[in-house]
Amino acid sequence: xxxxxxxxxxxxxxxxxxxxAVSWNFRRDTSGPSVWDYxxxxxxxxxxxxxxxxxxxxxxxxxxxxxxxxxxxxxxCTAEDANKIKEAWEDRWNLVKxxxxxxxxxxxxxxxxxxxxxxxxxPDYRKQQIQHIYANIxxxxxxxxxxxxxxxxWRRLYIEVTCSGGNGKGDPENFCGDREDPNKQPPPPQxxxxxxxxxxxxxEEEQERMHAFSTNPSRKNGLTYSRITFCNLFFNMRSMSxxxxxxxxxxxxxxxxxxxxxNRARVFLHETTHLEYFMETPKKADYVRDLKMSIKNVAVxxxxxxxxxxxxxxxxxxxxxxxxxxxxxxxxxxxxAIWVQKLINTYPNLPAAGSKxxxxxxxxxxxxxxxxxxxxxxxxxxxxxxxxxxxxGDPDFKIPGCAxxxxxxxxxxxxxxxxxxSADPGAVPYNVFAGQSGNVFGGFCDxxxxxxxxxxxVDTSGKVIKRTPPPNPATWKNYKFHLEYAAGxxxxxxxxxxDAFQSLKAACGSKGGQSNEMSTTGSINVGxxxxxxxxxKFDYKPDPAxxxxxxxxxxxxFDKDAFGKHGDVYEMDQRFFTGIACGGTADKVIKKGIRGxxxxxxxxxxxxxxxxxxxxxxxxxxxxxEVNAMVPLGKTGEGVTCTxxxxxxxxxxxxxxxxxxxxxxxxxYEFKASEN
Length: 676
What we know:
Residues 170-218, 353-379 are annotated as: Disordered. InterPro entries: MetalloPept_cat_dom_sf. One of its GO terms (molecular function) is metallopeptidase activity. Residues 1-21 form the signal peptide. Keywords: Signal. By secondary structure, the protein is α+β, with helices and mostly antiparallel strands. It folds into 3 domains: 91-407, Collagenase (Catalytic Domain) (3-Layer(aba) Sandwich), CATH 3.40.390.10; 419-537, no CATH class; 547-675, Killer Toxin P4, Chain A (2-Layer Sandwich), CATH 3.30.430. It has 17 helices and 22 strands. The protein has helices at residues 63-66, 79-96, 99-102, 110-115, 124-139, 232-235, 240-248, 252-255, 264-273, 276-279, 306-314, 328-344, 430-433, 442-446, 497-508, 571-582, 642-651, and strands at residues 7-10, 25-28, 70-75, 158-163, 212-215, 226-230, 419-421, 425-429, 434-435, 438-439, 454-458, 479-487, 517-519, 521-525, 529-537, 556-557, 589-591, 599-605, 608-616, 626-628, 659-664, 667-675. The strands form 7 sheets. The protein has a 5-stranded antiparallel sheet with strand order 7-14-15-12-11, covered by helices on one side. Helix 2 (79-96) packs across helix 9 and helix 16 runs antiparallel to helix 17.
């Protein structure tokens, strides 16, 4: 019996792929929304959804089982096509189901190093984003996601699948180039031929141009659910088991060549990385694209398809992990490499690229720059002395000549007035971008004329940077902000300049390990134009005149009422806790560049909290970068030790014993008493 918020489904649950269209009849309970309120209409589908609308034991559906990811639609698909798609769906899961893919990538392993980049140079947050994509791909198999599925919970956990052959209804734009219609001249294929990875070698005319392509729901295309269209080339490929049989018959050398293991599951995995809803992009990871590269001796810039080009993409070492985490085939071929390694008990290192790398920074599928800062390559010490290796692989292996680019640039433009933020944290906290003490964009906004473009670069105090950093920078002196306004088509402005940047702070200010850092880049369309920012780090060299001498400065006492009401603060208690707080500081070094207290102690008695902190003052520069916590001035004696600093912060402040601070060079010694 279904719950009252569920559905009684009257249908044939077990329909063979060759059956006629199924009629699905529903009886809904109108007491509230149910799972079926968000499901597709299966009434015109040739075949029932997959996995079936029953559990593994054959039991009819219940609400929980409906909340798994399912394939539906089947427009243009034959029974044989549908079976191959179902098989690839299951095999795709087999590629990512093990913990060494979905949970714990071995970043020091040869596969990870060859496909993702140097393990010690890829930032942890990028590793987490890559791991997130695999975890979500694996969860797409579940009847019930291990955590809450993305965006609208279980409401859109369906993927529409279509096939390009037959009457062309599955691919009306003929992106695949497969349409067969004797009564109508089909439109030309929307994608040029590709090649097999060998420099200068093009596909023959009879070769298909794409394996498959994905389309994400948008207001423009009117889709409610994610869609994957499979081209004829996909159905001509081997299944995962067939690829295994084929490859294992090869020589030991060819067994180590990933091109001999090409299969339909790899294509399906590739396409799922493009599904923004399921991957939670760009909220939790960057859009996964098909990146384009310029390569020496290759006349036409290829996309990073296939294991050879994926390895070349990795060799752009300027920004490790930045480009590889954005490329769909890198995810697909890394998973295949791990699968093959387990089968042959050795790493499949072919086709090898050696030190061959792109001539310039990789670009998106439309040829646009992804990062304006990465313009020159950077040498990888691990590749020093390694020769460039030209392509050698399976002569039957082909890569498409077209990117699966329809999912972002054409189909899902960002809605106006919505902030767009990169997934990379920019290290600068949101309250430095805009906080109570000021913001970086105030001066920029003062000069805005919404009919004209404006661009400038400022420091963290909002001052324009002309040639050199300011003499007295704040804490984040090593960062500057590129601020820009691009005038639009003249529509009315829905937000002021200040409101636009405040919106960017709210939308882009939750990155990094503590969820308080601004994204590296952000933009917002406000109708009349687009405001944007980019954070850049640079090497700061302080002005010698701005450095702080390593001497004792004036003591600063807290206001008597700074910490509210509290019990009496006794000297004996304060001395006792001081001894504990400063104990061991003779072996402690206070270093520049570490945020927060490097020595912290709290003790309480009689409802009074005694707090002791030692820290390097934000933005302070000295000729040295570290000092001893016990004797910061490098000498012992009365009044120049941690113990005496803290005791005097109590004794020499006439404020009821709540304390104060004293600074030795850039190192601050703080004692304060407050209510416990």
